[in-house]
Amino acid sequence: MRRIDELHLNYPFAGARMLSKMLKREGSLFGRRRVSTLMKRMGIHAIYRKPNTSKRYQAHPVYPYLLRNLSITRSNHVWAADITYIPMKRGFVYLFAVIDWASRRVLSWRLSNTLTTDFCIEAVQEAINKHGKPDIFNTDQGCQFTSLEFTGLLKDNGIRISMDGKSSWRDNVFVERLWKSVKYEEVYLHAYDSVCSAEQSLEKYFMFYNQIRVHPANAYLVVRKAC
């Protein structure tokens, strides 16, 4: 599963068929169906343009993307969030993080062994308590983010809701860049024995990411100096 995750990070357009061919060249015996099953468990899928044939639930409205051609130059103008898969020595967990779009600062994060909405809401509430409120909050169209509980939290705080176009990972590109940094600079270098060890190690990494690591998009300043 870890190798599938690595390949998906580098080739997000690759579906189960292409990934199974790549793995076969590396000596793996996983077929397309097995890779497809694992991708579903990991919560990942190939990103490509395709007709929108899905029917949206009335209870879960999808909101328009508000960031196109928007100049974002200050903290708390736009926050963004997403969920990614984190492999461990045995099994895996899901990581949710909230970032400030302008400064790239990781404002809050949570781990969970299930793809529920509650751990996302906890992290967003923590970010609001510590850093104030953004004007706009951007996510993809995942069911956690379209849920009435999640959107209700944002509305109750007077925050405008923005959502990526379907399968448009570039609409939330800075979160995707964060995931790549987290995985190549931290996750893939360790084999977490437990959720507790993963939390402890990730806490150290995010302190490094916010306070020490330089960021090209911020003129090679650390996040806390770019805010």
UniProtKB/TrEMBL annotation:
<dbReference type="GO" id="GO:0003676">
    <property type="term" value="F:nucleic acid binding"/>
</dbReference>
<dbReference type="Pfam" id="PF00665">
    <property type="entry name" value="rve"/>
</dbReference>
<protein>
    <submittedName>
        <fullName>Putative transposase</fullName>
    </submittedName>
</protein>
<dbReference type="InterPro" id="IPR050900">
    <property type="entry name" value="Transposase_IS3/IS150/IS904"/>
</dbReference>
<dbReference type="Pfam" id="PF13276">
    <property type="entry name" value="HTH_21"/>
</dbReference>
<dbReference type="InterPro" id="IPR001584">
    <property type="entry name" value="Integrase_cat-core"/>
</dbReference>
<dbReference type="InterPro" id="IPR012337">
    <property type="entry name" value="RNaseH-like_sf"/>
</dbReference>
<feature type="domain" description="Integrase catalytic">
    <location>
        <begin position="60"/>
        <end position="227"/>
    </location>
</feature>
<dbReference type="InterPro" id="IPR048020">
    <property type="entry name" value="Transpos_IS3"/>
</dbReference>
<dbReference type="InterPro" id="IPR025948">
    <property type="entry name" value="HTH-like_dom"/>
</dbReference>
<dbReference type="GO" id="GO:0015074">
    <property type="term" value="P:DNA integration"/>
</dbReference>
<dbReference type="InterPro" id="IPR036397">
    <property type="entry name" value="RNaseH_sf"/>
</dbReference>
